[in-house]
Design a protein that fits this description.
single chain; mainly alpha; about 65% helix
């Protein structure tokens, strides 16, 4: 048998074994997931009143209260909607993990509180970007720094703040931002870091 065909047969056999192992591993992972999910659906409910909810005071953010800019007033209103709502960042947890820890009866409530947090940080980002575009760097900076303090992972928050620090000539602050992003779980981590590096060249 020619060497080429022998090598080809060996390769096919190796590939088949590899695929079988992969499929086997996938099946095991799938079975383990559904077994864990089933157990989570019967987990006992726990008290969620003592969780680390986000409490926001109006004094922590630069509301104008008397602006004649209709768009700015609207954006401020969208942020204020959430100040009295319960908010919590649960992005690090899957639904299965939440059910395991707090019971299925609390899942909808916790999902609502997490959604409130996500909408809140999105509205903060939109408001901050609007002020930045109006060259109101002082207020935009306060909003974006506050957003980072509550662990917002929205890329615009970091890059806008990077541009503000660049305009101030504060390269150390940009380096601090880069470190913060590198140590975070942000989905667009590498992209944000590259944009912040570019801010240092402005």
């Amino acid at each position: 048998m020619p060497l080429f065909f022998l090598c080809f047969i060996v390769f096919v056999l190796w590939l088949r074994v590899k695929m079988n192992r992969t499929n086997s591993g996938t099946n095991i992972d799938s079975e383990a997931f559904w077994e864990r999910e089933e157990k989570a659906n019967f987990a006992r409910s726990k008290d969620i009143s003592t969780l680390s909810y986000l409490n926001v005071s109006e004094t922590e953010l630069p509301f104008s209260n008397s602006t004649e800019d209709e768009q700015e007033a609207y954006l401020e209103g969208e942020v204020k909607k959430f100040l009295n709502k319960k908010m919590i960042n649960l992005s690090a947890f899957s639904n299965t993990e939440l059910k395991e820890q707090y019971g299925i009866a609390n899942l909808d409530t916790l999902s609502e509180y997490d959604q409130n947090f996500l909408l809140f940080i999105r509205n903060l980002s939109t408001w901050g970007c609007y002020l930045y575009e109006k060259n109101d760097f002082t207020r935009a900076k306060q909003i974006m720094e506050y957003s980072i303090s509550i662990e917002s992972d929205i890329s615009k928050v970091y890059t806008t703040l990077g541009h503000i620090y660049a305009a101030e000539g504060n390269l150390q602050k940009i380096n601090d931002l880069i470190t913060t992003v590198e140590n975070s779980d942000a989905a667009l981590k590498s992209s944000i870091v590259k944009q912040l590096q570019l801010c240092k060249l402005e």
